[in-house]
Write a structure and sequence with these properties.
With 87 residues, this protein is mostly helical. The chain has a single domain, classed as Ribosomal protein S20 (Methane Monooxygenase Hydroxylase, Chain G, domain 1), CATH 1.20.58.
């Protein structure tokens, strides 16, 4: 347990930041799932629209260093390739 006032404050700040990061990460995962669902449904136009909406979420979360920028780039690339491969 934190003993000094500074350590107690850092513990409070860390807990608050952790909750914020969890919410950001959850929004990221939800955005990816929405695109995957649209791809699974076979609607290329809807999948493309979902990807455009999801890309801003992915970039935002990566800019805040909640997920690594390469992870966001990898997801965007793979989702884009999956949409391009649709008939």
């Amino acid at each position: 347990m934190a003993n000094s006032a500074q350590a107690r404050k850092r513990a409070r700040q860390s807990a608050k930041q952790r909750l914020h990061n969890m919410a950001q990460r959850s929004a990221y995962r939800t955005a990816v799932k929405k695109v995957l669902k649209a791809i699974g449904a076979g609607d290329k136009a809807a999948a493309q629209a979902e990807l455009q909406a999801s890309m801003s979420v992915m970039d935002s979360v990566a800019d805040k260093k909640v997920v690594h920028k390469n992870k966001a780039a990898r997801h965007k690339s793979r989702l884009s390739a999956a949409i391009k491969a649709m008939a």
